[in-house]
Design brief:
Strand content: 5-15%
Largest sheet: 6 strands, mixed
Number of helices: 7
Order of helices and strands: EEHHHEHEHEHEH
Structural class: alpha/beta
CATH architecture of the domain at 2-28 and 99-208: 3-Layer(aba) Sandwich
Number of strands: 6
Distance between the termini: 23 Å
């Protein structure tokens, strides 16, 4: 499928043939459930799972009997570390555990293909012939983004390290850079536009173009 290629000024300079198996999935064939599964997995794996509350055996409270056993008209109680008292232990509270989920690499790549095809269908993909700035200045990067995506937020994919772009994008709230080989469903769904230079496109096609 032919797709327009723009320069840093936002003008179309040529076209590129995008692989249909990566960017050409029709809207009827999009696997929304697979994309959702990949997103949930990624968000779950990002959780630290360090939440913890103290039980009644762990709180630092005197274990002396609160008041005498009989004659007060109140219920019998031993120490104040019971969950019903302020400062007492928490009953059935959270304990540290892992939230990690497994997903075969083949399914992860399939989810990325669906997400990239959805970006094409929703006119969110922007292909650039060459993305570069002369200096690591936020003003220059912002000018390029304005020409390519306007005021929309953007995910910029890079084929390799580019210090000028990385330092310039790092100060922008509406943009984020990522190596093409680290592409993931969460970042694809977070930003309004996806800017892909031709060299980063080659990385994507070599990575996602083969099954397995």
């Amino acid at each position: 499928m032919q797709f327009p290629v723009k320069d840093v000024n936002g003008k179309q300079v040529s076209t590129v043939d995008l692989p249909a198996e990566i960017f050409g999935i029709s809207r009827e064939d999009l696997n929304v459930g697979l994309m959702h599964q990949a997103y949930v997995r990624q968000m779950a794996n990002a959780r630290l799972g360090t939440h913890k509350t103290k039980t009644r055996g762990e709180v630092s409270i005197s274990t002396a009997k609160i008041y005498r056993q009989k004659g007060t008209g109140r219920a019998r109680h031993g120490s104040r570390n019971a969950p019903i008292f302020v400062g007492g232990g928490k009953a059935h509270g959270p304990i540290p555990h892992k939230y990690t989920k497994d997903m075969p690499k083949k399914m992860v790549r399939a989810a990325l293909r669906n997400a990239l095809s959805a970006a094409v269908l929703d006119e969110q993909l922007v292909v650039v012939d060459k993305l570069s700035v002369s200096a690591p200045k936020t003003k220059e990067v912002s000018k390029v983004l304005d020409a390519l995506v306007g005021s929309s937020s953007a995910l910029v994919l890079l084929a390799e390290r580019n210090e000028n772009l990385e330092r310039g994008i790092g100060n922008l709230d509406r943009a984020f850079y990522l190596r093409a080989s680290y592409l993931n469903v969460r970042d694809l769904l977070t930003y309004d536009k996806v800017i892909v230079p031709l060299d980063a496109l080659e990385v994507l096609t070599s990575w996602l173009g083969t099954e397995g």
